[in-house]
Specification:
With 224 residues, the protein is an alpha/beta fold. The chain folds into 2 domains: 142 residues, 3-Layer(aba) Sandwich (Rossmann fold); 68 residues, Orthogonal Bundle (DNA polymerase, domain 1), CATH 1.10.150.240. The chain contains 8 helices and 8 strands. The longest helix is centred in the middle third of the chain and has 18 residues. The structure holds 2-phosphoglycolic acid and magnesium ion (MG). Pathway: Organic acid metabolism; glycolate biosynthesis; glycolate from 2-phosphoglycolate: step 1/1.
Length: 224
């Protein structure tokens, strides 16, 4: 039986859900690596490293591993280079995934309140949403550094629900990664994941979201 949802508010993740931002992130990571005199990683590696914020991305690039901790001096040298490169190139090669523009329109047409909850730093989130022409859909935008904790903490989701005056049971989280599922579960939100995003190279079905969709437009078929 198809799962049915009846949300008053839908919170949507950014990287890997609304936007394929890896081309710009990988370009900036590789520009940083080159500037540090180190070999570039390429898009395929960077794709598995996105989703826990830009600091963690830079640490992953420096160590070549998901949980690696570089020497503080290496990080302090690399991080500002990455920030400067990404600020200059954010949005250039990034695109909305197919079905996103239509999916947002369908949600808005139902009168559902929309928020964007991302681990991306605020300095990059707002220009990216604006450049892709979708910023106006979101009544709230919560970035990775907007609050003391980011996903997988439930805090950003709880904060958005509170701002909209919506009970967590009347909310829905839509994301692409295990962090979105963990944050939603901890906040008491139902959660739907997209099949196409970034989940550190793992199948998102293994995280056991309530449903998996192949495009944001497909969500409309699951709403009561
Ligand atoms: O890792 C990031 O910077 C952003 O990730 P998110 O939009 O998928 O939360
Ligand atoms: Mg994501």
């Amino acid at each position: 039986m198809t799962q049915r949802f009846e949300p008053e508010m839908v919170l949507i993740d950014l990287d890997g859900t609304l936007v394929d931002s890896v081309p710009d992130l990988a370009h900036s990571v590789d520009a940083m690596m080159t500037e540090l005199g180190r070999p570039p990683h390429g898009e395929a590696a960077v794709r598995n490293w996105v989703g826990n914020g830009v600091e963690r991305l830079v640490k992953r690039a420096l160590t070549g591993s998901l949980d690696g901790e570089p020497a503080a001096a290496d990080f302090d040298r690399a991080y500002p280079v990455f920030l400067e490169r990404y600020a200059a190139h954010n949005g250039e090669r990034s695109r909305l995934y197919p079905g996103v523009a239509e999916g947002l329109r369908l949600l808005a047409a139902r009168g559902i309140q929309l928020g964007c909850v991302t681990n991306k730093a605020a300095q990059f989130t707002e220009p990216l949403l604006a450049a892709l022409g979708v910023a106006g859909h979101f009544g709230i935008i919560i970035s990775g550094d907007s609050l003391p904790e980011k996903k997988p903490s439930p805090l950003p989701l709880q904060h958005a629900a509170q701002q909209f005056g919506v009970a967590t049971s009347d909310a829905l989280m839509v994301g692409d990664s295990i962090s979105d599922v963990k944050a939603a579960r901890a906040a008491g939100f139902p959660v739907v994941c997209v099949s196409y995003g970034y989940n550190h190279g793992l199948d998102i079905h293994d995280a056991e979201p309530d449903a998996v969709i192949d495009s944001l437009a497909e969500l409309d078929t699951m709403l009561a």
